[in-house]
Amino acid sequence: MKKVLAMLLVLILAGFTVFAGGSQEKTAAAVPTAPVEKRVVPGDPVYIAKNASELTGTVRFWTAFGDALGTGQMVKDFNTYYPNIKVIVNVYPNNTEGNLTCDTALMAGEIDALLSFGTFNSAARWENGLLLNITDKLYHDNLDLVKEWGSDAYVDANDQVFVIPSGGLSVFVGVNMTKWNEAGLGPIPDSWTWDEYAEASRKLTQRDAQGNTIVYGGSDFNQRDYWTYALRQTKGVDALYNADGLSDFDNPLCATILQRLINCADEGIWYNKNKLITDGIKTRDLMWNEQAATGVESIMTRFVMDTNKYPHDFILGYAPYPVNNAGETNYALGNMPNSFFCVAANAQNSDAAYEFIKFASTYGGKYLYKAGHTTTWTHTNPDEIVDLVFGSKEEAAKWVDVDSYIKNVLAVGQPAYHEEYIVAYAEVQSLLDEYTTYILGKQLPVKEGLAELKELADEAIQEKLAER
């Protein structure tokens, strides 16, 4: 059933391409919009409408995060400014079935405002005419995408805006501070390479009398495609594509990253990533039960205070995502755009829905941290986030290393990866997952597997380009 639904989603959404202001070739959007001269906002940003208390309406808001994960408090705060706008929250799962349900609801006019996950899903929605063009609304409120959210990549070929790139993801190396300190590794580094992380993992690894690993020093994240985050860290944009618009899997760095994962697993210092995938194990669970001393994570903070479900007695630290080469810009350090607030094209009250997503993308963005996600809003106050997530800085110190949390999770203003070009993205992603399994499972050698992956990915991209 899941495979059938996945294919339906690909058939509905595949072929829609994100159009952005980068170096890639631009193509006319599926929903034509008149070319406009890019305008500079004339004054101070307007985050709250001057007549907020007078506005009325109902906003049906779809999100993956329920009330306990910050949405309830965000809506409550919104209503302190907009008391006469009622927000009805519907939680949908951010998976294949959930996104298919969301697209159906958009087409049926059942959604007014949406937190849309993933560049591909979001771009396909606007190109399929499901989202409202909010260019004029943002201009009216003097809201510049770069100044407010750090990137204007997520616009169409005519510089029209359909989404606010305000939902982010922070990727880090979670650290069991007890084991870290016992290994004598000193302060958490401000920056480190993958080789340095591997060396730290050797010191953190514990073995039994027979030499078998009983505590792994480290681990990658438990999703197949997370090895590409090391590619994203170096490239900064469009990790899966080269300058010619084809796939970049023949980039030597791809082979280096995958071989590194295999070598460290064979050495017994990192938990085997293929086993994580095939056994359905989460990296954070390895850390909670102390099978791993560190691990690449993104939302682990969401669970750190729930000791009933995740019993542990160590302080959680946060090391930066490692770099491939010392001294290079770390585009995995900042909050990478991961989710987008938008208004449905057929919203029953588009003005009310817009005021809600504007609030959710600015003052309300802080509540994404309750769910382990982040906001890309450049005016985020780190101290406010600490109080929001933990109650106070003093309470936070009982659970996490506060300084490294602020530096490597909040990471306000730090460089962040983004995507501008996603031709045949669904097909390329599917092939990527398939061949990652072959390579990490040692069914194919690294270079041979990547060569096959590139050939098939390039074919999918060329077919999509030929359809234009």
**What is the count of structural domains?**
2
Span between N and C termini? 31 Å
- What is the spatial order of strands in the main beta sheet? 2-1-3-10-4-11
Summing up helix and strand content along with how strands pair, one would put the structural category as: alpha+beta
CATH homolog superfamily of the largest domain = Periplasmic binding protein-like II
For the biggest sheet, the summary is: 6 strands, mixed
Task: Characterise the protein shown here.
The protein is α+β, with helices and mostly antiparallel strands. The protein folds into two domains: 10-169 and 334-378, D-Maltodextrin-Binding Protein, domain 2 (3-Layer(aba) Sandwich); 172-320, D-Maltodextrin-Binding Protein, domain 2. The protein has 18 helices and eleven strands. It has helices spanning 2-13, 71-81, 96-107, 119-127, 135-140, 145-149, 177-182, 194-204, 228-235, 252-267, 273-279, 283-288, 350-361, 382-390, 393-396, 402-410, 425-440, 446-466; strands at 57-63, 85-91, 113-117, 164-169, 172-176, 206-207, 213-215, 294-297, 316-320, 336-343, 374-375. A six-stranded mixed sheet has the order 2-1-3-10-4-11, with helices on both faces. The chain has a three-stranded antiparallel sheet with strand order 8-5-9. Strands 6-7 form a two-stranded antiparallel ribbon. A hairpin with a 5-residue loop joins strand 6 (206-207) and strand 7. The longest helix is centred in the C-terminal third of the chain and has 21 residues, at 446-466. Mean pLDDT is 90; it is low at 1-37.
